[in-house]
Write a structure and sequence with these properties.
two-stranded antiparallel ribbon; mainly beta; single chain; 104 residues
């Protein structure tokens, strides 16, 4: 678990440099159950912030200041004029008469 292993992989050591094209850690934003040949995307408004997630419970809520839309594979920084609380899947416009600058 935590790795993508194509059917050509002939080793139980997915970090082996020689196998990098056929066996590699599960990417950010996904988890890989044992025997995975493709990653599973984290549930709605969640993301994995490290490689090699093994189960959906390793997916965390999207961080404050970012949003995690379903169609993207990485969190997106909240745009100016919007705010993004924890677990946002889209930016929320600031109330009329207020403004939240982008803090980069």
């Amino acid at each position: 678990p935590g790795y993508i292993c194509n059917e050509m992989a002939d080793s139980h050591l997915p970090n082996n440099v020689l196998l990098a094209s056929v066996a590699y850690p599960c990417p950010y934003g996904f988890f890989c159950l044992e025997g995975a040949i493709s990653p599973d995307k984290c549930p709605f408004a969640t993301f994995t912030y490290s490689l090699g997630a093994k189960q959906p419970e390793e997916c965390s809520e999207c961080k404050v200041g970012y949003y995690c839309p379903e169609e993207e594979n990485v969190p997106i920084i909240c745009p100016p004029g919007h705010y993004c609380p924890v677990a946002s899947y889209k930016p929320t416009p600031c109330p009329i008469g207020s403004y939240q600058p982008n803090e980069e």
